[in-house]
Amino acid sequence: MTDPAAALHTDTEDRPGPAAAALSDAGPAAARADAARVDAGPAVGRAGVGVRPGPVSARLDPAARPYLDVLAAAFPDVGGRVTDADEARRILAAAPRPAAARPRVGAVEDRSVPGPPGAPPVPVRVYLPDPEQWPGPRPTVVFSHGGGWVLGDLDTYDTTARNISRAAGAAVVSVDYRRAPEHRFPAALEDVHAALCWAGGHLDELGGAPEALVVAGDSSGGNLAAASLLLARERGGPAVALQVLVYPALDAAQDSASYRDDAEGCFLTAAHMRWFWAQYLGPDGRADDPLASPLRAEPAGLPPAHVVVAGCDPLRDDAAAYHRRLNESGITSVLDGRPGLFHGFLALAGVLPEARAALEGLGGAIRSTLSDGKTSGEAGGDAG
Hints:
This protein is an alpha/beta fold. Helices cover 32% and strands 16% of the residues. The protein has 13 helices and eight strands. The chain has helices at residues 4-7, 18-22, 56-59, 65-74, 85-93, 158-168, 187-201, 203-206, 220-235, 257-261, 270-281, 316-328, 353-367, and strands at 107-113, 122-128, 138-144, 171-175, 208-218, 242-246, 305-312, 333-342. An eight-stranded mixed sheet has the order 1-2-4-3-5-6-7-8, sandwiched between helices. Strand 5, helix 9 (220-235) and strand 6 (242-246) form a beta-alpha-beta unit. The two termini are 31 Å apart.
């Protein structure tokens, strides 16, 4: 459960060959593209993303195959040969990082915000868009990175956060939450909620529109983003306009069809997921706790959603089921299905057109939270 950025990180605005691009955390969106918004109704396939029957090799977009192969070969075999979190982190830290320019934004600042009661402050990295390109009040996105609650940090997800800021014209608050197994559930969740509360109370400082606070996350970060909304609902805020979940992990039961159908061959494996969940929850963790498994929560009162799904991914069914539950509860949810892509594809927005389209789609969804519907500016600005 990690973004390719967390496997092998670099920043690039070029379009390298498959090997070099797979070892990067994504270039910017180089051109506009509309996201394919797919309703997860019964006629759209088992997972609601138009998945064709058959093995992964037959379903995967041929353009994505070289990147998947490079990433899968370099990623630590967690849950197999690698069972220690520190060893997994060392493997990732030792991976090659080809130097390249970072996608440009208006400003970047590392800072700390108040943590949960009795816990240390939470490090965050704040990204502001180019003010000339994106003038006026903007959306504010509290972003939680992936990495199975164990891997990933502000640096490995730096380009992803920059790309979201560029695509949405948004202030992005990227959260460096405490990681498992040193800090098990609910430590990471409490940190994300603390960062959300800080962002909600500092919108003026961030240039944020009061009606356009957004939570976002990919993979395990999608889990934390969704669960932070449950805490916000329980604790009286802050009010959130939209949730953006990118191939999220939402149910610790791990018993859906996609966990069986896509157990291997999709970069992220079912074995990886078993290990990640075990690190996060620990031996005494409750898989049925809605704060750990947001798919099990009552959706009433949650904000609209934009859910991005990879068709070749053990987590595919989690995302589609969450989307359906929201719609069935009368909550607007859009499912952006990418049937031929694999878990972590958003980091390849600089080289895969489908990934670029997904990035632009979520950027447009975030911009739509502005009360005046303002979408001025073009994604991919070069200031800052």
